[in-house]
């Protein structure tokens, strides 16, 4: 049997060890976009950003390109009917190491919530410049409502 003082020391030691092993809240992590790094723009017929301007925002656009079909046959070409998109401010993610920024596969409905990707919303209904996806397939079997094709786009804002 342990003496009362040894028992007290053992109990205090176990308490201290347990307390130190408990998870603690990490300090807030603040990220600022790198202003010094000059991004390399993809080949484009658009004019370059004006001299003296810097990259202010990078946005992720997620939405649909919309098409109508005159008839539900393969010979009927899909006609563009506009796009619907939401832009998310991804600027702060730029200064993270490239491996740290991974956008998970999420259902489109989660992106409409304020949580979604955790990116502030910049606005809605934009015209795209660089797009992945969004190209219409055949009108074969498409009803009178037309079709919506999901796309993602990257937007750069200079100022």
Automatic annotation (TrEMBL):
InterPro entries: DUF3455
Transmembrane segments annotated in the record for this chain: none
Leader sequence residues: 1-21
Record key words, sorted: Signal
UniProt keyword Signal, yes or no: yes
PANTHER family in UniProt: CONSERVED FUNGAL PROTEIN (AFU_ORTHOLOGUE AFUA_1G14230) (PTHR35567:SF1), MALATE DEHYDROGENASE (AFU_ORTHOLOGUE AFUA_2G13800) (PTHR35567)
Name by which UniProt lists this protein: Malate dehydrogenase
Native source species: Cryomyces minteri
Organism classification: Eukaryota, Fungi, Dikarya, Ascomycota, Pezizomycotina
